[in-house]
Write a structure and sequence with these properties.
mainly alpha, about 0% strand
Amino acid sequence: MQVSRIVKENLEIDSQSFRDLSPLMKEAVSDVFKLIEKETGDIIKKFEGAVNKVSEFHNINLEEFEKYFDKEILEQLGEK
């Protein structure tokens, strides 16, 4: 799955999982994608690093943040 399939050009995510988030969580998710947008190499490591940085920056519970991404992936795969 490509990140571009989840995120529109203006970094808005069009999913029910995203719409259900608080404004702070929405901002944090957008920040993760902004950090990895132009990265190359091991995207998984870059993504995990971005999630850690953003959760710390916004003072968000890392486990809760990761649960959102798990839920988003399942929704995108049609397994919601």
